[in-house]
Amino acid sequence: MDTWSTNLRLLRKQRGLSQKVLGQEVGVNASRIRDYELGICEPNLDLLIKLTARFQVNLDDFLTSELILSNSFERKLDPPLKSNSRVLVISESEGGHENIVHVPVKARAGYLNGYGDPAFIETLPTYRLPGVRAGTYRSFEIEGDSMLPLSPGTIVVGKYVESWREIRNSHTYILVTQQEGVVYKRVINKVKSKGQLVLLSDNPVYEPYAVDIEEISEAWAYYCHLSNAGAEQKSNLEQLLQAVEELKHEVAALKS
Fold it and tell me: What is the pLDDT of residues 6-26, one digit of tens each?
């Protein structure tokens, strides 16, 4: 495999892009991106310029240097804020479509240590939701009563946040923190003034508190939630899969 094709695959995965999404951004289909990454064919000069501009890398480096050897190419949520840098691991179907990785409660402890480990991510269940917009998504099972009316066991689907500057005041996010693990909270962005996020619970029993930005490994913006409140004792994964199937049937009915 040529150096440039290896670099293309590396940079795409580091930025959490599926082949389909990257193709849409540069004007080709997913199968063409896959062929480039396998070295089956080569992009023309115009497309090379688009790709290197998208990833903000030098064209000569992209074609001739093994970027994986340089820490400067590790994906960062927001370099100026000195956040923890790492590669975001994603899951893709055989057709190059990005899956939603689900993190159940039982897997949370492992996720805190293994979120950057492809082998660990592969052990987690995956699924796809109909009609989901482009981006990288992950779902987490929530605990406790701090975010009522969402009950314990509700599955919250979040979209990956690339920069802390994207965090909007009073919106809800799933945060992966070094001290408290995975939390789902409403957030006030104080990064610019204090280097912190203020986390609020919708349940007034719980007091707001601040977390230093360096303590946060990942942020996922609320996209939707799946809940079977009042259902019989089913596993949360079974509830998730059932909810996905119901959504698929509803979408199919709307199209018919």
Answer: 889 888 877 778 888 899 999
